[in-house]
């Protein structure tokens, strides 16, 4: 008698299937789903990998399987719900794909056989999995807003969005409200997702499940403890011929290959590529007159501000230091909503204390009404200590200018434009979220987070000159560095305050 492939012992019963020859204790230890045939043969139906075993065991209300294609996410999502449906009588779940053709080519290829093995049956007309304990599984699509409305009056113990990034995020959030259970049932309402890193809602999916950087202003109900993810690689699919599979990606763009093969997150059609070399942790020091000081401690250092105006949308201000070598460093950001021009201006003045501000490049909409009424919002800013320089609202020119500054290397080999990572998180996130307009070549597509990139575009289009180190004899007393007041990033000084929200 052959021994078990796992423990190598010779137990009484060894499973005989096309893939496995395991003893029953090892089958159970693997967390496998099996059935015993009338002749006593153990038929193994599903075996989770170690990573997927963690997925099945998780009690997190919102959980995502993410990673490269070909890692068995759809299969795991379906079998997770099979197990839950068999464990609880009357359990209901919903499995969603974006379109019916996608559903037919994925889950519906397997549901008839799986339900037969589990003692139930699959209703092909209504697309309902009927379990012997009265549990029900619904397989459907959500392609339009009308499809979404069908599920809002329903109740499911669990919902699985297969390829979740192909759904608009608003669809996901609306349908997820139908995941609910009755009080005292002992059940946990869950939402599950599976995806590779590209798609319509990739940005929101990554932020909610992986980076967990949603602010209270964006979503007051968000609790990062209720969201989690499990990363999968090709190594998590032991049945895949990996060598053949990798060859299928020949000819694909680098972005698609990294996402589908390596599971690297990115934005499909991203306008900008912000890489590690664009990020700084601290403001660099500048050497002048035989002294090395933090750049911001030199009173003559040129600081520019950029301002994009909004009322219901955000008003954005970013502070940018220009070093003598030409390096441009956004080092502070601040945001307001439903705030008057006067209040914004006063806040900007406070945040700019002791900085040598050259000018503030601003949203041209602030000059609306200047000719007709001889007054405009730009006047309000100037009257409160923030004179403005009118910029140009041109998304194509702004996109090209930002690209030029991101990709120009200075003599030290580093990019001309670098960003203080911890001080400007919204600017960084926004730049990475920008997409190329599909209708107008070279244009930054409209996006809810485009305010900070557009503001940065005002600066990059202006073509400013590097700061000039003045001759020592020409430095006035009030322009001398203040001894004993050197500031360190994160010390709590106003210069390094966390960005306002």
Q: How helix-rich are the residues, as a percent range?
A: 25-40%
Average pLDDT for all residues: 87
- Terminal residue distance: 70 Å
Q: Oligomeric state of the chains?
A: single chain
Overall geometry comes to elongated
Strand content: 15-25%
Runs in which pLDDT lies below 50 for 5 or more consecutive residues are 488-501
Decide which structural class fits the backbone.
Answer: alpha/beta
Structure annotation, total helices: 16
Whole-angstrom Rg: 29 Å
How many β-strands, per DSSP? 19
Word description of this protein:
The chain is α/β, with parallel strands linked by helices and 501 residues long. Helices cover 28% and strands 19% of the residues. The strands form 5 sheets. Strands 5-6-7-4-8-9-3-10 form an 8-stranded mixed β-sheet, sandwiched between helices. Strands 16-15-14-17-18 form a 5-stranded mixed β-sheet, covered by helices on one side. The longest helix has 15 residues, at 73-87. It starts with 23 loop residues before the first helix and ends in a 39-residue tail after the last helix. Mean pLDDT is 87; it is low at 488-501.
Question: What is this structure, in a nutshell?
Answer:
The chain is of the alpha/beta class and 501 residues long. The chain has 16 helices and 19 strands.
State the main characteristics.
16 helices, eight-stranded mixed β-sheet, five-stranded mixed β-sheet, 501 residues, alpha/beta, 28% helix, elongated
Q: What is the topological layout?
A:
Blueprint: H1 24-29, E1 33-36, E2 42-46, H2 50-57, E3 62-67, H3 73-87, E4 92-97, H4 100-105, H5 111-117, E5 121-123, E6 128-130, E7 136-141, H6 145-152, E8 158-162, H7 169-176, E9 190-195, H8 202-211, E10 227-232, H9 242-247, H10 254-262, E11 279-280, E12 285-288, E13 291-294, E14 302-308, E15 315-322, E16 328-336, H11 341-351, E17 357-362, H12 370-373, H13 377-383, E18 389-390, H14 395-407, E19 419-420, H15 425-433, H16 451-462
Parallel strand pairs: 3-9, 3-10, 4-7, 4-8, 8-9, 11-19, 14-17, 17-18
Antiparallel strand pairs: 1-2, 5-6, 6-7, 12-13, 14-15, 15-16
Helix pairs in contact: 11-13, 14-16
């Amino acid at each position: 008698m052959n021994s078990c492939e796992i423990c190598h012992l010779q137990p009484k019963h060894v499973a005989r299937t096309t893939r496995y020859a395991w003893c029953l204790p090892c089958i159970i230890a693997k967390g496998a789903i099996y059935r015993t045939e009338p002749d006593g043969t153990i038929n193994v139906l599903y075996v989770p990998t170690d990573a997927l075993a963690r997925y099945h065991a998780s009690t997190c209300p919102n959980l995502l399987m993410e990673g490269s294609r070909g890692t068995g996410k759809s299969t795991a999502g379906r079998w997770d719900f099979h197990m839950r449906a068999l464990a609880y009588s009357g359990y209901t779940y919903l499995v969603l794909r974006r379109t019916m053709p996608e559903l037919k080519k994925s889950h519906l290829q397997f549901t008839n056989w799986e339900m037969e093995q589990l003692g139930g049956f699959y209703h092909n007309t209504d697309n309902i999995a009927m379990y012997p304990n009265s549990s029900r599984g619904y397989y459907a699509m959500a392609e339009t807003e009308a499809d979404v409305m069908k599920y809002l009056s329903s109740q499911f113990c669990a919902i699985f969005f297969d390829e979740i990034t192909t759904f608009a995020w608003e669809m996901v959030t609306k349908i997820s409200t139908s995941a609910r259970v009755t009080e005292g049932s002992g059940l946990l309402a869950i939402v599950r997702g599976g995806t590779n890193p590209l798609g319509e809602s990739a940005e929101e999916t990554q932020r909610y499940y992986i980076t967990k950087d949603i602010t209270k202003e964006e979503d007051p109900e968000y609790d990062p403890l209720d969201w989690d993810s499990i990363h999968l690689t090709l190594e998590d699919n032991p049945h895949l011929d990996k060598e053949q599979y990798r060859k299928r990606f020949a000819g694909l763009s680098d972005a698609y290959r990294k996402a589908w093969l390596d599971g690297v997150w990115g934005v499909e059609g991203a306008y900008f590529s912000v890489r590690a070399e664009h990020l700084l942790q601290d403001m660099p020091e500048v050497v002048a007159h035989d002294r090395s000081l933090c750049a911001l401690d030199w009173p003559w250092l040129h600081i520019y501000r950029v301002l994009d105006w909004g009322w219901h949308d955000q008003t954005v201000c970013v502070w940018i230091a220009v070093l003598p070598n030409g390096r441009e460093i956004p080092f502070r950001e601040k945001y307001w909503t439903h705030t008057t021009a006067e209040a914004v201006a006063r806040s900007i003045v406070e945040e700019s204390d002791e900085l040598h501000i050259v000018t503030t490049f601003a949203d041209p909409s602030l000059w609306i009404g200047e000719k007709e009424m001889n007054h405009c919002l730009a006047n309000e800013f100037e009257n409160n200590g923030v004179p403005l320089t009118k910029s140009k609202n041109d998304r194509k020119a702004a996109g090209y200018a930002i690209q030029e500054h991101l990709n120009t290397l200075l003599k030290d080999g580093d990019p001309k434009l670098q960003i203080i990572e911890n001080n400007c998180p919204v600017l960084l996130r926004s730049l990475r979220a920008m997409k190329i307009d599909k209708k107008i070549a070279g244009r930054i597509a409209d996006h809810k987070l485009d305010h900070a990139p557009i503001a940065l575009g005002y600066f990059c289009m202006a073509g400013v000159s590097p700061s000039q180190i003045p001759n020592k004899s020409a430095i006035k007393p009030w322009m001398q560095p203040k001894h004993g007041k050197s500031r360190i990033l994160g010390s709590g000084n106003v210069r390094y305050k966390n960005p306002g929200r």
